[in-house]
Amino acid sequence: MIKKILYFLATLVSVFLFFQLFIYSSKLSYDDDLHQKQFNRKYGIFSIVQKENVFFAGEKVPTSFAGVWERMDKELLKNTYWQSNTMLFFKRANKYFPIIEPILKEYNIPNDFKYLALIESGLENVVSPSGAAGFWQILKGTAREYGLEVNSAIDERYNLEKSTKVACVYLHQAYQKFGSWTMAAAAYNMGQNGIRRRIKEQGTNNYYNLHLNSETSQYLFRIIAVKEIMENPQKYGFIFRNKDLYSMLEYKVVEVDSTIADLNKFARSHGINYKLLKQFNPWLRSSSLPDKSRRKYQLKIPINSDFLVLEDLKLEYDTVE
Question: Using one digit for the tens of pLDDT, what is the confidence trace for 241-285?
Fold first, then answer.
C-alpha cells in the first residue's frame, strides 16, 4: 500500500514539473516581453572609454581631437568585439614576438612596430591581392630591391628573420625622410613615393592633417588599437592562461651550401618529415633547394620530433591475382 502511495505521489510530481516546464518554455518562446528582458539581462555591448595619453613609438596621438578619436574608437571596437580574431593575435604573438623584438631593437626601431607586422598579416604567411607576402607583407619588387631572394624555389619574404630585417631598413629610411615614426608607419602602408606626393600636394607633413585613402587613414589607428588591447587584455575582456598561448618549439639550425635535390629525403635524414621541414622553413617553396652559386642557407630543424611526427597507419591490402 505504501509503495502505491509513493508511486502515485511521484507521478503527480512528475506531471507537475512537466507542466511547469511546458509553461516556462512557452513563455520563453512566445512572450516577447519576457524574451526581450532575458536578452537584455544576459547580453550587452559596451562602448569604449575614450583614451587619453596615447602614444605610438614615443609619439603622442592627439585623441582629444574628435576626428582622431573617432578613427581610433572604430579600431578599438572592431578588435575588441571580433574576439576570436584578437584572441588568436594573443596566441600567435607569444610565439613570434620573441623573434621579432630583438631584431627591432638591433636596428633601433621602436618596439611598437611589432604590432605593424601583426595587423599586416595576423602573424601568418598570407598573400595579399596585390601579391605582398609573409608576416610583413612585402611586395616581390621591394623584396628583391632590399636583397631578399624571390624565385620559384625560394621566397625569403617568408623567412621571418630576414623579412623583419628588411622591414626595419625600410622603416628607418622612411623615418629619415619624413621625420616621425608615425609617418614611417603610414609610408609602410602607402609607399614612400605615395606619402611624398600627398605631402607635396597638401602642404603638410603631419599624418593627422593629411587627407589619405581610407586604408592608410585608418592604418596607424589599427596598430595603436591592437597595441592598447594586447597590453591591457583584461581591461578589454580577454582572459587566458599562459598555457593557452602558442609557443615556438625548440629547433636547431643546419647550414647548407649546396643543392638539396630532394627535401623529403633531407628531412627524413634529420629525423623529421617533409611537412615539419616546410613549417619551420616556409621560405622553401618547392620540393628541392637549388644552390648553383653555393650560397649558404640556414634551415631550422625541430628537436624532439617524437612529439611531432605521428606513426603511419599500417594497412593490409588484399592481393588481387
Answer: 999 999 999 999 999 999 999 999 999 999 999 999 999 999 999
What dihedral do alpha carbons 128, 132, 137, 140 form, nearest 10°? Answer: 170
Q: What is the pTM of this model?
A: 0.85
**Nearest Cα residue to 168 out of 181, 155, 150:** 181
CB 159 within 8 A of CB 253: no
Measured CA to CA, the distance from residue 119 to residue 304 in angstroms comes to 32
CA 237, distance to chain mean position in Å, is: 18
Count of all residues that appear for the chain in the document: 321
Give the residue with greater pLDDT, 230 vs 320. Answer: 230
Query: C-alpha cell of 224?
Result: 595603436
Where are the alpha helices (H) located in the chain, listed in sequence order? Answer: 2-30, 32-42, 66-81, 83-106, 114-121, 140-145, 160-178, 181-190, 192-202, 214-231, 263-269, 274-280
Grid cell locating 210: 593629411
